Amino acid sequence: MNFCSDCGAAVSQRWIAEDRRERFICSSCGKVHFENPRILVVCLAFWQQELLMCKRAIDPARGKWNAPSGYLESGETLQEGAARETLEETGLVVDPRSLELYSVINLVGIEQVAVVFRTELHAKPELRPGCECLDARFFCEEEVRTMDVAWGDKMGDSRRLFFEQLRARQFGIQLVNTALRPGEVYDARVYELRSRGAK
């Protein structure tokens, strides 16, 4: 950040004792500019024992595979954002109300938080990759495990865990810390889902 969005004057980083960190502060009007993580939304759409993946046509990680994903837009819910990204990247129409929370991923090293949803498809759809994708297809566990997945080396055993849960038809919700920065270790905590009986 170089200039103040309010008055256009130069900004500089200064230590804020109350916040215990540096912030960008305008040299003219004194406005403090906060930097907050961006929100990524991801959709794990599966048909039978196969997971929908798309091949990236843009950098970073061009030519690698990942689940449909992108940045949340203002004015939409997390589920709406995940459904929109899935449509844009693969041509698949997903009802946002069908999306179930699957994981929340701390991407501290790139100042992002990813919120991942899952949804089961009851028929194998025809896919139409969008301009940000080179290809979109459904893959079985063995294929996903061996494919060149974007940032796969930072995501621990998340692929294995997803297919284990899919086979058992028992999903939990994960809270994940990725290993994007030097010294960070991949860590995932899984919370089991329990249905509540009628009162």
Please give a structural write-up.
The strands form two sheets. Strands 4, 5, 6, 7, 8, 9, 10, 11 and 12 form a nine-stranded mixed sheet that branches. Strands 1-2-3 form a three-stranded antiparallel sheet, with no helix packed on it. The chain is elongated. The protein is of the alpha+beta class. Helix content is 15%, strand content 37%. The relative contact order is 0.16.
Give the structure's gist in a few sentences.
By secondary structure, the chain is an alpha+beta fold.
Core attributes:
Ubiquitin Ligase Nedd4, Chain: W; 199 residues; three-stranded antiparallel sheet; 2 domains; 3 helices; Nucleoside Triphosphate Pyrophosphohydrolase; alpha+beta; nine-stranded mixed sheet; 12 strands
Question: How are the SSEs placed, and which strands pair?
Answer:
Elements: E1 11-16, E2 21-26, E3 32-33, E4 38-47, E5 50-56, E6 65-66, E7 69-71, H1 78-90, E8 100-107, E9 112-121, E10 133-139, H2 141-146, H3 158-168, E11 172-177, E12 187-192
Parallel strand pairs: 4-9, 8-11
Antiparallel strand pairs: 1-2, 2-3, 4-5, 4-7, 5-6, 5-10, 8-9, 11-12
Rg over CA atoms, rounded to whole Å, is: 20 Å
Low-confidence parts lasting 5 or more residues at pLDDT below 50? Answer: none
Average of the residue pLDDT scores? 91
What fraction, in percent, of the residue positions are helical? 10-25%
Structural class label? alpha+beta
What order do the helices and strands follow? EEEEEEEHEEEHHEE
The CATH architecture of the largest domain comes to Alpha-Beta Complex
Terminal-residue CA separation? 54 Å
Let me know the CATH homologous superfamily of the largest domain: Nucleoside Triphosphate Pyrophosphohydrolase
DSSP strand tally:
12
Task: Supply the CATH class of the largest domain.
Answer: Alpha Beta
Number of domains: 2
Q: What portion of the residues fall into strands of 2 or more residues? A: 35-45%
- Shape verdict: elongated
Largest sheet: 9 strands, mixed
Task: Look up the CATH topology of the largest domain.
Answer: Nucleoside Triphosphate Pyrophosphohydrolase
Total of DSSP H or I helical runs spanning 4+ residues: 3
